[in-house]
TrEMBL record:
The keyword Lipoprotein does not apply. The active site is at E368. Keywords: Glycosidase, Hydrolase. This is Aryl-phospho-beta-d-glucosidase.
Amino acid sequence: MSAHEKRFPEGFLWGGAVAANQVEGAYNQGGKGLSTADVSPNGIMSPFDESKDALNLYHAGIDFYHRYKEDIALFAEMGFKAFRTSIAWTRIFPNGDEEEPNEEGLQFYDNVFDELKKHNIEPVITISHYEMPLGLVKNYGGWKNRKVVEFYERYARTVLNRYKDKVKYWMTFNEINVVLHAPFTGGGLVFQEGENKKNAMYQAAHHQFVASALAVKAGHEIIPDSQIGCMIAATTTYPMTPKPEDVLAALEKERSTLFFSDVQARGAYPGYMKRFFKENDISIEMHPGDEKLLKEHTVDYIGFSYYMSMTASTDPEDLAKSGGNLLGGVKNPYLKSSEWGWQIDPKGLRITLNTLYDRYQKPLFIVENGLGAVDQIEEDGTIQDDYRINYLRDHLMEAREAIADGVELIGYTSWGPIDLISASTAEMKKRYGYIYVDRDNDGNGTCKRIKKKSFSWYQQVIATNGESL
């Protein structure tokens, strides 16, 4: 197939993605309550801490709360067709269990969505992205408690009803499989001594599956033409060698993630997980009707993040670990790594796209992909981030190959189109954006926005629908 024949479809949703808790700031304004993100001092792997020392960069964000018009204008200048963000649950229900929502919080997102519409940018909205009301953790035990399903459904129905004329694309949870890797961030889980942690994490996951299905049900009722997706942190896993044991280890590693999309896209717990539960003394409490609910309210599309691939080995000698988006893995000798140890594998994105599409035959949406790096401002005031351009170009070219393979891909929103607070490390120096934000790791700076070299590059990619790659 010639390069000319490989192209992105008409109407492809080009854009960028952020999370409310990483950009908004204004943590105590507009009636907002405290969330789990507000008490994670060093990023999502850090423990629960409500002391003053825990006040982190999330509190400041990049002041999107006050600067959203300026930022959206910059996204429009790049030509964005879509912008993925999240609604901060605690702006709508500050403690999580209120009967009535906070009007000031609802109005803020009305304003944001109206601004996007003004620029013909489609909002893609995550209902819960790496945060939940701290009140639901302290008073109910987070997602371990079935009662939280009820609170989430009330929240989901509130925002679906409020924005039914403004938002068509929704996702129920961000990287829902992360409850296994960062349980406090993914599920508001705090463990008691001697508790069966695996059981608690999978029970929390079950409650999130039920909540997600209820949100899909509500979305289809309230917004008949809506598209409601799930979202997973996706990583292709390679066996380190052709040794059958390594191949099986890679399969099992992949299934630990695919389980989460299996339940939401196929509507049932797969057999391999039933065996896993039995062998790990895990017992999931289900309510009557849960299985029917999961079966009848599957997602419309699969959203996923892709930053890196992983390698699985059964050889005790393979101890050189590589860092990653919480998921780790054995270092792949054929790949280069980012400054944070994430292994760069564009071809893995094509493999991931084909794997997911073959498995589900549902539209796919790359809702996160990007390179975190330290950017330098040159003497002339420019930021020459060719390393970011190269990373994104290589991944987009592989996405185009997957489309040529027959994969139905509806959009690409790169992670962090504007610099934001890193979720994994709660620092500012790990930058992803096409737009530089003058703020440092200590929260100092003017928050001035500066276009990087990648800004005009991505602008050209969108203007040509990917032809300029």
